[in-house]
Amino acid sequence: MKRLILLCLFILLPQATFAQQPTLEEAQPAAGLGLADSLLAQGRFGDAQRLASRALEKEPENLHALRILAKVALGTGELEQAETRIDQLLELDPEVPDHHALQGMLALFQNHTEQSIQSLNKAIQLGRAYQADFQQGYYANTLVLAYHKADRAEEALQHCLHFLEEYPEEIHLYLTASRLYREAGNHEGALQVALDGLERQPEFPNLYASVALAEAALGNEDRSEEAYRKLLQLDPELGRELRATLDGVKPDSAEYQLRVD
């Protein structure tokens, strides 16, 4: 149940629009980093790595290139390489929130949950001064997951609800909160927070899965089926996964998913 499971971990990418990107062959080392960001967002890790490595050859302390290489290593599961790159980033500039966020994500996948919590808190603290809310929201959602993975469920939910007030546009916080409410057996809370999220983004498919699961747990089969049908229209693959869970074929269990967004 890879995409249904409502707890997502993000590789943090700069959100930029590149009006006209050079081709891989045309890209100069420095200019190619914008293209590398775009390729990374498309999941083209090898191409992104090639451009970032080219820039790093020319400028060994280029933070942008090092961040891309760290994200590529995380995305491909090369955790030792990711750790090397993240250590370099923190040594070169420990005041950049992304560097601590990447360290927190790495620690999460290494099952070093307390280190993850510490690093992600540091990222949020540093980011408050100048970071955009959407980026802070990414950090916040990942921090909630770290508390969850550390078996600190009450704290995870408390932090999630707090962050929802602070970053109400971060849609994945609604998804995570619904998941946490469901795990706590509070299906009314799970339903309400999912509906709140859908008020903000009515076409966000995963929240229909949250609604369907909560309504089913509350015994509202007709409403559950209505949410399932809406999900099936928006995302047929996710709808099929939800169907298997509603039918008891697959468990409603949490997974941690590294995702380029």
Give a description of the structure.
The chain is mainly alpha-helical and 261 residues long. The chain has a domain at 170-261: Alpha Horseshoe (Serine Threonine Protein Phosphatase 5, Tetratricopeptide repeat). It has helices spanning 32-41, 45-58, 63-75, 79-92, 97-109, 113-127, 133-149, 153-166, 171-183, 187-200, 205-217, 221-234, 236-246, and strands at residues 8-11, 257-260. Helix 10 (187-200) runs antiparallel to helix 11 (205-217) and helix 12 runs antiparallel to helix 13. The longest helix is centred in the middle third of the chain and has 17 residues, at 133-149. 44% of the residues are buried. Mean pLDDT is 87; it is low at 1-27.
Summarize the structure.
The protein has helices at residues 32-41, 45-58, 63-75, 79-92, 97-109, 113-127, 133-149, 153-166, 171-183, 187-200, 205-217, 221-234, 236-246; strands spanning 8-11, 257-260. It has 261 residues and is mainly alpha-helical. The chain has a two-stranded parallel sheet with strand order 1-2.
